[in-house]
Amino acid sequence: MSTEPLRIGLAGLGTVGAAFIKLLEQKNALLTRQCGRPIEVLSACARDRNRDRGVDLSNVEWYDDAVKLAEAPNLDVFVELIGGDGEPALSAVKAAIQSGKHVVTANKALIAKHGVELAILAEEQGVLLNFEAAVAGGIPVIKTMREALAGNTVSRLYGILNGTCNYILTRMEEEEIGFAEVLADAQRLGYAEADPTFDIEGNDTAHKLAIMTSIAFGTQIAGDDIYLEGISNITLADIRAARDLGYRIKLLGVAQKTERGIEQRVHPTMVPIESQIAQVDDVINAVVLETDLLGALLMSGPGAGGEATASAVMGDVADIAKSRPGRQHVPALVTPAKELAPYQRARMRSHEGGYFIRLLVRDEVGVFAAIAQRMAAANISLQSIVQRDDPDSPEKDSKAIILTTHATMETAVRQAIADIESDGHLRGSAQVIRMEPAG
Amino acid sequence: MSTEPLRIGLAGLGTVGAAFIKLLEQKNALLTRQCGRPIEVLSACARDRNRDRGVDLSNVEWYDDAVKLAEAPNLDVFVELIGGDGEPALSAVKAAIQSGKHVVTANKALIAKHGVELAILAEEQGVLLNFEAAVAGGIPVIKTMREALAGNTVSRLYGILNGTCNYILTRMEEEEIGFAEVLADAQRLGYAEADPTFDIEGNDTAHKLAIMTSIAFGTQIAGDDIYLEGISNITLADIRAARDLGYRIKLLGVAQKTERGIEQRVHPTMVPIESQIAQVDDVINAVVLETDLLGALLMSGPGAGGEATASAVMGDVADIAKSRPGRQHVPALVTPAKELAPYQRARMRSHEGGYFIRLLVRDEVGVFAAIAQRMAAANISLQSIVQRDDPDSPEKDSKAIILTTHATMETAVRQAIADIESDGHLRGSAQVIRMEPAG
């Protein structure tokens, strides 16, 4: 067992990088005791050397080039906090692995796009590729899936994986404020980016989902082959109707094994108000893993932020510090990367589940009957039907019809909606939100 | 990296042992691929060799003596599923460690009582002592605390750690049935033991809490030095009053660092109905870890059962299978066992928190004023006051007074209650339930 310091090269000194260095400074004695050896940042690189990050870098060797840092011979671990699925992150991580270093990264875009290739490289070199911080921030979901669930077969997983969306939905519900207004406020408070598209349209959730899907089902990562629906379309009327029916609306990433392949989907979802995941509010993330041995395992905690992300990075680094030198066998994606099966996507139209459908109609005789007939013709079994005045509509003669269905094929729902729309009774278009039986 | 089989000796073939062997049979290929080597049960022992357990033991070498099995030279790992804090479990685990084997155990009583001694032995021998299954069954809370939370400082942890109690409280609330009736039903269904004392009086929760406390705070395990209050005293009137105030009652184990030492306490607790932990129902367990870096991390899942417990045992075994040979540095209790600080108990009377107090009084003029005066005299700040008819009382002239307090010292509450009782207005004795600000 080595008691030599674990030597780290750190690329990227943004919020997470600075939090990681602070953490090492403040908890040095604790970490050394737990790991049996000190952890030291020997070298670092970032875009701007002179920016004040509130940390002491005077003893750290400075590199201007991340790839050069990754290749440096005097390091055990390369910590990549640069971000992005392109350069210099990709080349730097490859260079680190090829020069025999373990890699710890918080980069979800990189793993979602190049994870299989990097895992193959790491397994050839016998080094660890750890990326706990890439999924759900401070929640140890990767460790749980990679290690704790040995022998479990996952049937479905789902989660709240984007803090910005969850923050917006929570405030819309709690304060009865519309989407645009909450988004503007979230941007002002720093909870949403100036260009929020990547978060609110579900792309960020999709990256994290794709990584978990690969680990859960032993398939190649398919970050670009995911059904995506964001939250920008969700209105206060949806949120109120959900509440009246005993549901909340959350943006979920869901991966599920079916007979037709794997469903990977990101969409606003109605979850029962008495489920645990419905209570996950604000920027908090949560993941539920459904397995044959455990039923459902839920984890929730901070999905982002400097300290929470640094905590996940430190967990990965500490595992390396505690491990003994020599070749490692911990496949990055649990299944050895060369043996990952091809990803086979189940088409969304074959998805089967409950649906919430909100229709705004003219208040005329026969409209309701016409709608009911279209649903029946598509063989859709209705669970609940609510018809009422629509307080949000400027037109006095509008009614809202809110339907929820028993388990139904998506293709049937789409057909029924198309028929109802073509009948000409609707004001605007139908709102369709999937319902998930959440644990 | 070894590709030789990991050779296991398994002591104890009850529900968990049989589930473990079945799991190895059914998931052999999966586990071999993930671990890079096969896992094989070479030897086993149990009280009765001939009982039908639904598993094939024909290729397993049989021992009648667990200690002999633990000493056998041809094994890498000793899996202890005997249970109990005495013999033969204790001697067998010691013998395994002393003969250089890694140990995996599901035995919470053993770890709660002898964990420090066993950890010292394991660290001297450089072997792993893994006990994920001992706390919260299939929830990977030990792995999370030992590994994922490196660098975190825990301030408080709490959890629902006993499925029997949670099942009883859930059914009392959902079906409005009294404690005794639900308990009898739980016994009939196998959710409660014939002698349920150990579960319902909180001892089982205390064992698990003590182990987590040691890991969280770096102190010696103090399983016998815990404030204990079970659920047998909880009535439907409490549960209804809790609901009216926006709370649910859960049996929590709580460990908290204070200026006066560590509070370890097990008691019925009012948790806000909109908190996640309030939604943890039936036999499900949950743990919340509050740390400086993460805020709150919650995990919930199955706390018991053959398959869930076998899953945790398998996770521990797989970690050993993946690890390389040689001396290990993963202190069983995170802090090297010889460096654990003495446990210093904070006395319960110095506990500070919110309190729910339910008093049954004679419906007479002045009673309420007398009670209010006693609370004021003890300097207790009230948060809410409800006075109403008591539907559960056989006597028509009874009123229930339900008070909740802001953060208050326990000693003040005890004094006020003693004074109120001595005033002679009460029917029966006061019910006091602590409130926990749950995340």
Automatic annotation (TrEMBL), chains A, B:
Active site positions: 208
Enzyme Commission code(s) on record: 1.1.1.3
Species of the source: Notoacmeibacter ruber
Entry protein name: Homoserine dehydrogenase
Domain annotation ACT: ranges: 356-434
Segment forming the signal sequence: none
Binding site for NADPH: 108
NCBIfam families, A to Z: PRK06349.1
Residues the entry annotates as binding L-homoserine: 193
Enzyme class: oxidoreductase
Pathway this chain belongs to: Amino-acid biosynthesis; L-methionine biosynthesis via de novo pathway; L-homoserine from L-aspartate: step 3/3; Amino-acid biosynthesis; L-threonine biosynthesis; L-threonine from L-aspartate: step 3/5
Keyword line: Amino-acid biosynthesis, Methionine biosynthesis, NADP, Oxidoreductase, Threonine biosynthesis
Stored Gene3D superfamilies: 3.30.70.260, Dihydrodipicolinate Reductase, domain 2, NAD(P)-binding Rossmann-like Domain
Annotated positions binding NADP(+): 11-18
Claim: Methyltransferase is one of the keywords in the record: no
